[in-house]
Amino acid sequence: MGNPGDGSKRAWQLDFRCAAVRKKTGGTGVVLLSATPAKNSPLEFYNLIQYVDPDAWRRMGIRDPEQFIDRYLRIEIKPVVTPSMEVEERGAVVGFQNLHELRDTILRYGEFKTAEDVGLKLPEPKVEMVEVDMDAAQDAKYDRYVREIEAALKSDDPGEKAKILGLLARMALVAIHAELDEGYSWKNADQVKDASSPKFEALAERVLANRTCGHIVFVDNVAAHRWVKDTLVAGGIAADRIGVLNAEVAPNAADRQRIAKEFNGDPETETKPKFDVVIANAIAYEGIDLQTRTCAIHHLDLPWEPATLQQRNGRGVRQGNTLSAIAIYYYFARRSQDGLRFNLIQGKRGWMTQLIKSQDRDTNNPGAQMDMGPEEILLLISRNPEQTRARLEAVRAQREAEAKKKIAAEASKLLRAINARFRNAERTKDGTEAARLRGEAEERLKHLSRVNTDAWPWAAASVVVREHSVLVPEGGGPLYEGLRVGVPSAWNASKVEYIEFGKVTKDGQIAFRAAGEAAWRLLKSDSAQFATLKPEHYGVSFPADEESFTLKAAASVANDRLRYSGDWPGLGWQHAPDAWVERLWPQVAESFLGAMAKVSYYNQQAQKIPAAAPAGMRVVNAGAAFGTAGVTVLPPTEAGWRAFLDAAPASGLKFGELAEAGRWWWGRSIPRNLLSADGGEAEDLSEGAA
After folding, report:
1. Given the DSSP bridges, would you call strands 294-299 and 214-218 parallel, antiparallel or unpaired?
2. In CATH, 124-347 is 3.40.50.2000
3. Distance of alpha carbon 669 from its chain centroid, rounded?
4. How far is CA 557 from CA 143, 566, 572, 581, in A?
5. How far, in Å, CA of 523 to CA of 309, rounded?
6. Which pLDDT value is given to residue 2?
7. Euclidean distance between CA atoms 668 and 334, whole angstroms
8. DSSP letter string over 335-393?
């Protein structure tokens, strides 16, 4: 199900029956129950939901599986190992996107419950790792494959590197039986000289120790099925008490159900079981009940993804098993990749968990993680147990860090999108559109509140985006005008460096100053300095004497900078928080203007200071403004900017003169229609506005 093909007969029959139910009930009435609603990808939900509501996806603009794939799945070409042990390039689902939307749709139609959720009693699984030493033939082959992989890793030839995946797969086969990599099939498996192997012998020992109940043996290779059976028979189990479930022995569903029934028996009719052991591969993973008397499940090999292990164990650990406990055996060859591979796949979260229970918007598909890097490959082929354990921990920590980094990056990206919606809502004059944008932003804020705080701890701080334009560094939290932080010094952890942030610019920068400084500088969003910020650094109180130090710094700026260059824009006050400028300007205006009045004639010509005069507003230099009776300089604040715009039409100044003054004094652009008849209503016209 979920494949974009013609569909199976069973799928078509289900579709017809669902259509008949909906026709009788006016479009409702279809209820589906399944232990495995979807295993391989969300594409399977595309079909399932259509059985319940045929128009569900169409209403979302999704009209076929290809559109579903484009919207929710990330497809890449990946190397995969075929049953013939060849490596081919095939399309693989490597990740999922827009999961918040897909999750909402699925949960609208489906409800997911585990046995624990509903109080269902299942046999208790008791897991045991069985370690065996490989025999001499296995060791020799294993070492040879290790050398070939190491050589391929060092090679610059892409063809050599392409062989690595196949070599790893052959190593896994050799760990089961020394001859399993030689291409044996079900038909010619009886030609092998010795069917036994250390794993098979360990299996036989455990089966023989408990012959009064059912044993399920999982191994994918069909040649191994014959050899396992031969080993069990040699150990004393009658051949007619051993069943085999593979496509060679049981090519159709009826054969498989018959074998399952003969393995289970029927306590109600007192039908005794025919088989005590069933050797199986993938055809028994789902759709077959083997639980009635199963006391042990044996894994001679391992799949790559945890979902398959769960399905294997689910053949016995399920409702209907008459036993209170069930043994789960994993057979690992020492100094092989078995144990490490088990740890790696156990560490992967299934995509179903990500989709249904997490709040991730995008995620990787653990089942597609076949493109291992050199570190992972070297880890798998390591034959030093201590070294392997140490490297495993390192890889595990690295993967966890990478996963957290990705979550943080996605969360910060979402916060930027939220910021854009709130700011667009502020700018639009359409009330309906503004309400829609705010609604979308609020909905996304809810998603942020559910992000893993270990990866991204900024959800609580992000609510400021409702009122403030924010800058969001990659993986970081919101930075906004007026924010004050206290960060431990990089040189002395006992000391705190206090920072205040100013306006956010259109080009992705934010102004800042250190406590006690009178000049403002810009930082880009990718600045490494933001990496040290944490939520606990936010909202601190500056030292009580901070402003006195700032005023001293302002006096120094006047004497050392403005006195010689007159470069007002260079102080960055146009990017400072308006409340800060409102508070400081009255205290520094005289010294600043007096200093700028002393610059050379050449530097005075660059000054464009707006001032109110008896004859109306004028644009002057500091020399003309400072100490001239009746001339009042407009403050470089929001209130001063509004007064400037109000006085501009009647000033008689040309548009170019006004534009130069606006940019030089406030760092802002005047409205294009400022001098037109409609008066030029001023919105947020700052060049620095987000």
Report:
1. parallel
2. no
3. 40
4. 72, 10, 12, 15
5. 50
6. 43
7. 71
8. TSSHHHHHHHHHTSPPHHHHHHT---SSEE-GGG-----HHHHHHHH---HHHHHHHHH
For 396, the token pair is 């595990």
What tokens does 246 get?
């593979």
CA distance linking residue 623 with residue 615, whole number of Å: 18
Question: Which pLDDT score is estimated for 380?
Answer: 60
Phi and psi angles of residue 315, each rounded to the nearest 5 degrees, phi first = -65, -25
**Sequence letter at residue 202:** A
> What's the CA angle centered on 351, arms 349 and 353, to 5 degrees?
70
Burial 89-108 (b: 16+ CB within 10 A, else e): eeebbbbbbebbebbebbee
Residue 442 dihedral angles phi and psi, to the nearest 5°: -65, -40
What own/partner pairs with CB < 8 Å and gap ≥ 24 does 459-467 have?
459/411, 460/535, 461/535, 461/538, 462/415, 462/418, 465/415, 465/418, 465/419, 465/422, 465/441, 466/422, 466/441
Which ranges in the chain are annotated with CATH 3.40.50.300?
Answer: 124-347
Work out the end-to-end distance of the chain between its first and last CA atoms, rounded to an integer number of angstroms: 48
- Please tell me the predicted confidence (pLDDT) of residue 675: 87
The amino acid present at 445, given as its one-letter code, is L
Tokens of 519: 């000049």
Angle at 519 between CA 685 and CA 512, to 5 degrees: 65
Instruction: Pick out the chain residues at pLDDT < 70.
Output: 1-7, 36, 39-41, 76-94, 344-386, 388-389, 392, 677-690
